Amino acid sequence: MQSVAAERLKGRAGVRVERGFREEDRDQVARMFWEAFSGKLGRILGPQDLALRFLHGAVRPSHALTVLDEDGTLLGVAGYKTQRGGFVAATYGDLARVYGAIGAVWRGVLLDLTDRPMAEGQFLMDGIFVASDARGRGVGTTLIEAIMQEAARQGMQTVRLDVIDRNPRARALYERLGFIPTGKVRTRPFGRIFGFREATTMTCPVPPRPRSVKRP
User: Fold this and answer.
1) What is the DSSP letter of 214?
2) Which CATH number characterizes residue 31's domain?
């Protein structure tokens, strides 16, 4: 699949935010995703070589925002999901090509457990991750702000995310940016498989886009 055309969004000084990612960055996007979420998905998508092969084909630039530095180096990615699709999307056939027929069946069942219904007008943050050498530079905050802008552009009412119980720093960041807890997600009896027992669902209202004023 070809990457979507880059459209710049408002970013911080020294970086730019774009819709989608370049095809030549696909391997790096897959590696960064795996580094961020192997603790949660490692028992399902592993071993690493197969996981990277699967993710290479599963990540969708049409549902991603990226932060790049002035030289075009990829610093971070935020995936999102709407009722029209999500950042990581795959069929049984996609799983079978990497894991075989039997491996695809049980992996598909477990992956389905991570999928939650979405309300109309809801914009789900479907994974946010930053390159290890770019952490602490405000890239995560820039991505969240870009997610809010993109949700507004698409006419959404709320942004939703889930933060696991073992990540209090991320939860504190989301709260500073206006997200409030609205529920709990419990993984029992599959907590050991997913690497966490509980996650907090958080939402933030999307400010309406300002209407353009028609000149007389």
Assistant:
1) P
2) 3.40.630.30
